């Protein structure tokens, strides 16, 4: 290997050390005392972000991808750089909204080789439509234009709180590709000094629920699977009333776990 290449890689490694330390401590719901080495975002200093993008998550697909109602969906092998960039976008969205944002990795009913990603807004709703265009732009821009695109968004929305430690909740389905794609998202979050919280394998509605809970500081419910089930059963009992049958409701349970999260969660220990 040429000496110049060695020097470049060594410099990149030194720039990425804070990110690597942060990555090793990414939080799960049960983790305590989360600490991370900050990357200074003052004065639009994003060298680590772009160096990491170019070295670890270069854009590998020439054809454009479109963010729609279901987010991005395509072959999982084409999504690593997209996931990293959605981690970046989630942090910017969270800073703009001054709220917790969710990122769900799933392709729902698509074939197993596919995967996808969608962002969840503060009230548990889908990503605001005007930001869908930004998601599409982030995913398709050339590597050497990523910095300009981020600065363009920051200027457009006058995002001044670039050092805020915003939380990004990450969930995924059971596809074999989901774990490493989740890592790509969290690397993007950490690159902009966000705080990724990994909820592991969950359903899309569960992640939406967790986002609302975090943004209401627990008023809506507890951001956990048990909290989600309690919320559902309480609402169901309220609708059903005190009787097991009320004329329109028959006490019958049909369970469809398919081959996704439902099947895994429905297994008896």
From TrEMBL:
* Ranges where the Alpha-D-phosphohexomutase alpha/beta/alpha domain occurs: 94-133, 163-215
What's the Enzyme Commission number for this chain?
A: 5.4.2.3
Q: EC class of this enzyme?
A: isomerase
Gene3D superfamilies named in the record: Alpha-D-Glucose-1,6-Bisphosphate, subunit A, domain 3 (3.40.120.10)
The pathway where this protein functions is: Nucleotide-sugar biosynthesis; UDP-N-acetyl-alpha-D-glucosamine biosynthesis; N-acetyl-alpha-D-glucosamine 1-phosphate from alpha-D-glucosamine 6-phosphate (route I): step 2/2
- Cofactor(s) required, per the database record: Mg(2+)
* Single annotated GO MF: magnesium ion binding
Catalyzed chemical reaction(s)? N-acetyl-alpha-D-glucosamine 1-phosphate = N-acetyl-D-glucosamine 6-phosphate
Q: Give UniProt keywords alphabetically.
A: Isomerase, Magnesium, Metal-binding, Signal
Q: Which InterPro entries match?
A: A-D-PHexomutase_a/b/a-I, A-D-PHexomutase_a/b/a-I/II/III, A-D-PHexomutase_CS
Would you indicate the residue range of the signal peptide? 1-22
One GO term under biological process is:
UDP-N-acetylglucosamine biosynthetic process
**According to its UniProt record, which protein family does this protein belong to?**
Belongs to the phosphohexose mutase family.
Name recorded for this polypeptide: phosphoacetylglucosamine mutase
Protein's organism: Exocentrus adspersus
């Amino acid at each position: 290997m040429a000496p110049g290449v060695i020097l470049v890689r060594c410099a990149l490694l030194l720039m990425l050390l804070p990110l690597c330390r942060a990555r090793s401590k990414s939080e799960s719901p049960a983790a305590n005392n989360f600490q991370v080495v900050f990357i200074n975002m003052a004065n639009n200093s994003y060298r680590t972000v772009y160096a990491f993008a170019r070295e670890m998550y270069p854009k590998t697909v020439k054809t454009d991808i479109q963010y729609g109602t279901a987010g991005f969906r395509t072959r999982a092998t084409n999504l690593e750089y997209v996931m990293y960039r959605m981690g970046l976008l989630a942090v910017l969205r969270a800073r703009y909204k001054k709220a917790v944002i969710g990122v769900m990795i799933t392709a729902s009913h698509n074939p197993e080789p596919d995967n996808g990603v969608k962002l969840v807004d503060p009230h548990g709703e889908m990503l605001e439509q005007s930001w869908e265009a930004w998601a599409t732009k982030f995913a398709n821009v050339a590597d050497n234009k990523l910095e300009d695109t981020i600065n363009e968004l920051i200027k457009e929305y006058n995002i001044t709180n670039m050092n805020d430690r915003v939380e990004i909740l990450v969930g995924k389905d059971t596809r074999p590709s989901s774990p490493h794609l989740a890592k790509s998202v969290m690397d993007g979050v950490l690159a902009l000094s966000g705080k990724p919280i990994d909820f592991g394998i969950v359903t899309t509605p569960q992640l939406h629920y967790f986002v609302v809970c975090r943004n209401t500081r627990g008023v809506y419910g507890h951001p956990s699977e048990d909290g989600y089930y309690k919320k559902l059963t309480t609402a169901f009992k309220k609708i059903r009333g005190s009787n097991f049958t009320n004329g329109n409701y028959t006490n019958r349970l049909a369970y469809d776990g398919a081959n996704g999260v439902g099947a895994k969660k429905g297994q008896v220990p």
